[in-house]
Structure formats: C-alpha cells, structure tokens
User: Which sequence fits this backbone?
C-alpha cells in the first residue's frame, strides 16, 4: 500500500516503502542519538527525516510520547535562534509541540546491570537497586529522546 493512500497516521508510518531498508540499518537509529555525537549532528538527525518517529518522556506528565515531523522554524538569517517543533499524536488531532533544543539534545549516561542480574529481578524497584558489573559495566549514553527503527515503532504502536 502506498503511503499516500494511508487513511491513518499509524498506517502511514507502517506502510512507508523505506521501512524495510531502515530495519536492515537499525544501528543507525541508535547512533543518531548517541551521546558521543555533537549537538549539531544529533539535531540534524532529528530534523532530516520527516517520517522518523521519536519516543520521548513528557517532562511534566512523565508519559511516553511519540513525536514526529520535526521542523526547525529558526536557524535562518531572519530568525537565527533555533525553534524546534514536532507533532504529538495522530491524524487531525496531532498537536504541535515546541521543544527546547537543550532538552532534546540532553544526554543521559546509565550503567546497566549484567543480563544475568536483570533476569532475576521481579519489579522496577529491584531493577533500580541492581548494581552494574564491577568490571566493564554496560553503558547507555543516549539523548533523552530516541529515534525508533520501524520494527520497534510498529510493536510499540500495538501496546
């Protein structure tokens, strides 16, 4: 089905012809928001693909949000300050959201407990209390917003 024939926001993103190629290159999605990249590189990654879907936590409500269609309304001679917006929601009810650039590009670094430890925990409290490995702990160094590969986004839409 062509994405121009999709009658819902969800179907539009699920039917994109480039999804298959994007899924084969899933590593590029995590590299796009890696904390090791410069702020300019990460901002470009959010803005360059209008069909990218980003998962983020809303700062006030703490709810998971799916944002899409990022645009920079600034960064020009007449409007030099960056003004980043995105759409939150689906279809005609999607709401524009103004995003502070520093918040979008903020990175978090988390040391991850070993997989053997994570397999034994029963709840989120135990996950938070689990200690990272003493030697060579796994680390996650990412922006607080994550660009999702299509295979992951399609699963999350069904939850």
Assistant:
């Amino acid at each position: 089905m062509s994405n121009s024939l999709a009658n819902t926001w969800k179907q539009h993103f699920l039917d994109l012809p480039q999804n298959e190629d994007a899924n084969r290159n899933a590593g590029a999605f995590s590299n796009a928001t890696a904390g090791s990249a410069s702020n300019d590189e990460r901002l470009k990654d959010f803005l360059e693909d209008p069909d990218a879907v980003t998962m983020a936590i809303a700062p006030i409500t703490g709810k998971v949000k799916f944002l899409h269609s990022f645009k920079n309304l600034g960064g020009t001679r007449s409007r030099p300050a960056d003004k980043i917006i995105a759409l939150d929601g689906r279809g005609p009810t999607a709401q524009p959201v103004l995003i502070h650039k520093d918040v979008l590009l903020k990175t978090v670094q988390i040391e991850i407990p070993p997989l053997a430890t994570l397999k034994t925990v029963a709840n989120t409290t135990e996950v938070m209390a689990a200690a990272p490995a003493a030697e060579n702990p796994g680390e996650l160094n990412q922006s607080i917003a994550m660009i999702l590969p299509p295979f992951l986004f399609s699963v999350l839409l069904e939850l």
